[in-house]
Amino acid sequence: MSEFLAGWPLLSIVTFLPAAGAIWVLAARAMLRGENPGFDQGVRIITLVVTIATFIASLFAFAAFNPNNPEFQLTENVPWAFGMSYAMGVDTLAMSLVLLTTFLMPICILASWHIEKQVASYMVLFLVLETLMIGVFCAQDIVLFYVFFEGGLIPMFILIGVWGGQRRVYAAFKFFLYTLLGSLLMLVAIVAMMAMARNAGIENPSNIPALTAFAAQGGFSPDIQIWLWLAFFASFAVKMPMWPVHTWLPDAHVEAPTAGSVVLAAILLKMGGYGFLRFSLPMFPDASHYFTPFVFTLSVIAIVWASLVAFRQLDMKKLIAYSSVAHMGFVTLGIFAGNIQGVQGAIFQMLSHGIISGALFLCVGVVYDRMHTREIAFYGGLVNRMPVYAAIFLLFTMGNVGLPGTSGFPGEILTMLGTFQVNAWFAAAAALGVILSAAYALTLYRKVALGNIENPKLDGITDIDAREWVLFVPLIIATLLMGFAPSLVLDFTKASAETIVSAFAGAAP
Fold first, then answer.
1. What is the per-residue pLDDT across 186-199, written as a single tens digit (0 to 9) for each?
2. How far apart are CA 47 and CA 69, in angstroms?
3. pLDDT digit string (tens) for 59-102?
4. What's the rounded Cα separation, in Å, for the pair 415 and 413?
């Protein structure tokens, strides 16, 4: 298979196939709108087919990929301008996140099947967003990375602002301004890095592997690393989001449509963790060592504080949003532990959280589609009318808690083991967060699913239908498979994790 696929621009196909689908939808709208009464349904089908085709294309890329090779693979390089290039390539870290993205996008489209407002525009935005998200993980040129990284703000901004809830405009602008302002500092740092690399005689100063090699040779002095690290941190910390620059996330989640919340939690937040792993640790290892206590402190505050805030929420979506802030705290703990357990745990946690948080937002979407409210107090006793839904909701709640046998367990335990090797007190504080997550997650489940139905409006609520079964079955399989066989992920990501740890360990603490 790998010999057959050799020479194919697989990453470009995976990246731009959704964009081609968006052009297809726009062309169909220009030709058929107003003349074909089934146009909206046709757009839904086209979009679903394109996202499924993109997932299949990513499987072909996976088949041509060697997980034992720590180098970038499936590379493409076309000169662009001013020493920059259209350069694509993936290692095991990037490949795993590409697969997560293409796996979840058809589910998001199915979750959006009942969207009636400007269907074509909605689907086009999701397809464009998929191209930009995949591009972030595939880009080997730092300027190209920045274009994809920032470009993803635009479709998500529009999705929240047009198809969101009552406070959608406020939430959309808050999301956009927070993430944009943080990334402007990163742009300044990128320009400075390219200038330093060019002055040192680097032929391709925007090439990410070249910059990483330049950094490994001491190209960025420890003092310079401090400023570069802070500039990148400003962007990635907001994107994660880390405490205290997390306040945009609950508003964005609450107001976004269900599929928008899934993409936001499952993929967009992971760009911050990916940035730390791709840039901060290997390119600025001295600064990363210097700031490790700072990051540990913010991470533990996020884990404990966000868990306490989640416990007091009245809106299901907002509770899950704060849960995401807490779980991302485990990711940053693992990353900056800088050892193999911590880094592999962080990568595993990112993938697991993408599946579980996406599933939880879909669970909220199921009852919201029926009752048009996310208020926790409105529900209660759903197990009596929706036993299948209650069982599915319980599984993902257990995954969110980190129950052994679900994908939530390996990532959390590995990040805490990695952190313990660096500082036992921070690991103990993170363990407290696990207890708190059980408190708020199980309390939510008890209030929504258990007991008797006391609200007469719930008497006619129906259990999940065939479309919703299709949504949840892949997520159930992924959650249990990663829980019972975590080595499938850990063995795959090991090569990248070892490379990152080696670069971090090479710097003096």
1. 888 898 888 888 88
2. 34
3. 999 988 888 888 888 888 887 766 678 888 998 999 999 999 99
4. 6
Helix or strand run (H / E) with residue 370 = helix 340-371
At 404, give phi and psi (nearest 5°). -55, 140
> How far is Cα 338 from Cα 194, in angstroms, rounded to an integer?
26
Tokens of 29: 């709208």
Cβ(361)–Cβ(320) under 8 Å?
yes
The predicted-structure confidence for 20-36, as pLDDT tens digits, reads as follows 999 988 887 777 655 56
Long-range contacts, 311-315 (Cβ 8 Å, 24+): 311/436, 311/439, 311/440, 311/443, 313/376, 313/440, 314/375, 314/376, 314/377, 315/254, 315/374, 315/375, 315/376
Interhelix angle 222-239/168-199, nearest 10 degrees:
160
Helix (H, G, I), strand (E, B) or coil at 134: helix
CA dist 468 → 114, 355, 366, 399 (Å) = 12, 16, 8, 19
Answer yes or no: is pLDDT of 427 > 60.
yes
Residue 315 has pLDDT above 90, yes or no: no
Which residue shows structure tokens 């040779």? 217
Name, in order, each residue with C-beta under 8 angstroms of 242's C-beta and a sequence gap of 6 or more.
272, 298, 299, 302, 328, 329, 332
The tokens 């008497």 sit on which residue? 459
Dihedral of the alpha carbons of 416, 417, 420, 421, in degrees to the nearest 10: -140
DSSP secondary structure string for all residues of 231-275: HHHHHHHHHTTPTTS-THHHHHHHHS-HHHHHHIIIIITHHHHHH
Does 157 score more than 70 pLDDT?
yes
Distance CA 99, CA 121 (A): 25
As a whole number of angstroms, the distance between CA 195 and CA 206 comes to: 9
How many helices and strands, by DSSP H and E, does the chain display? 22, 2
pTM to 2 decimal places: 0.91
Inter-residue contact 25 to 124 (CB < 8 Å): yes
Residue appearing with tokens 């086209």 = 46
Is the bond preceding 244 in cis, omega lying within 30 degrees of 0? yes
Half-sphere CA count of 197, side-chain side, radius 13 A: 26
Amino acid, single-letter form, for residue 367? V
Here the tokens at position 462 are 């129906």
Distances (CA, A) of 228 to 77, 132, 190, 239, 270: 26, 24, 8, 17, 21
Residue 231 to residue 246: CA distance in whole angstroms? 17
Give, for 75, the enclosing helix (H) or strand (E).
strand 73-79
Of 70, 61, 72, 96, which is closest to residue 347 (Cα–Cα)? 96
Termini Cα distance of the chain: 44
